Amino acid sequence: MDQLAAMKAFCAVVEAGGFTAAAEAMDVSHTVVSRHVKQLEASLGVQLLNRTTRRFALTQAGQTYYEHSRQILDQVEAAALLVAQHQVEPTGLLRINAPMSFGLEELAQWLPDFLDAHARVKVDLVCNDRFVDLIEEGFDVGLRLAYSLSDSTLIVKRLASFEEWWVAAPAYIQRHGTPVVPADLAAHECLNYSLAGKAGQPSFTAEDGSVHTVDVGGRLQANSGIVLRAAALAGTGIAASPVFLVREHVARGELVRVLPDFRQQPLKLYALYPQNRHLSPKVRAFVDFAAARYLSSSGQDGND
């Protein structure tokens, strides 16, 4: 007995609602389908279907076997498609959603390389800092920066991590002094990112492993890291910023990193996409490209 063929026939009967419909869907005879199911029942030693002249019903054993068989057949099909996709060139429109700051300052740096590598893919990139329902708004993939993600109905792939640096302009440091320990931030003008959880209560880990949580405040908060960076450059206060937003400014001396010996939980970059049974080549190509990009730059840009 070809067990996989018998399993396919049995699932077809259940899903089509009868032997005749299953035979038509599989493009085989009624006799072939019936024989497969009978051989399967004989092999298992249980009855899977209660049959009458007009209808059938799954037995309890049949229901259990169907559920597991469906999973197995889906996995077999997915494996075959996965192998085939290596021979399929990604093509079509790829709609991407990304945070504003990340899209402008980081994604924009390597997205042209992705397009060069995949000549038949077109990209529609939408950047914003509001909650976006990827499925409802028709996006193929979303990029998210977060300390962690809550349970999601989407497929989630972690791509990279970014340190957060506390930075200030040299002019601000000259006027107000340099924080030496996290508690010193309480006396400074801090620029807060309003979308971050507990933005006014950052926690730091010292080199000895001790944890320091401090209440910080300031006259400016914003939902844009680019706005906070501009304020820091203007000498308005001290900002916590993902490294990709400030590394060049620090390198040029326009901003100074403070509290470098105290670490915070890194921001993680995730790719999210709908739980389709099969992942399209264009989405797989984009996610794989992003993962390879950050793997190759690990340790250079504040990633881990």
- The CATH first-level class of the largest domain comes to Alpha Beta
Strand order of the largest sheet: 4-3-5-14-6
Helix/strand-derived category reads alpha/beta
Mean pLDDT: 88
Q: What's the gyration radius in Å?
A: 28 Å
Can you tell me the CATH topology of the largest domain?
D-Maltodextrin-Binding Protein, domain 2
| CATH architecture grouping of the largest domain | 3-Layer(aba) Sandwich
H/E element order: HHHEEHEHEEEEHEEEEHEHEEH
CATH superfamily of the largest domain: Periplasmic binding protein-like II
Counted beta strands: 14
Number of domains: 3
Distance between the termini: 51 Å
Shape, per Cα inertia axes: elongated
Total helices: the number is: 9
How helical, in percent, are the residues?
40-55%
Largest sheet: 5 strands, mixed
Q: Hey, roughly how much beta strand do the residues contain?
A: 15-25%
Low-confidence stretches: 299-304
Q: Oligomeric state of the chains?
A: single chain
List keywords for this structure.
304 residues; alpha/beta; D-Maltodextrin-Binding Protein, domain 2; five-stranded mixed beta sheet; 9 helices; elongated
Which helices and strands, and how do they pair?
Blueprint: H1 3-16, H2 19-26, H3 30-44, E1 49-51, E2 56-58, H4 60-85, E3 92-98, H5 100-117, E4 121-127, E5 141-146, E6 155-162, E7 164-168, H6 170-176, E8 190-193, E9 203-205, E10 211-213, E11 221-222, H7 225-233, E12 238-242, H8 243-251, E13 256-258, E14 267-273, H9 281-296
Parallel strand pairs: 3-4, 3-5, 8-11, 8-12
Antiparallel strand pairs: 1-2, 5-14, 6-14, 7-12, 7-13, 9-10
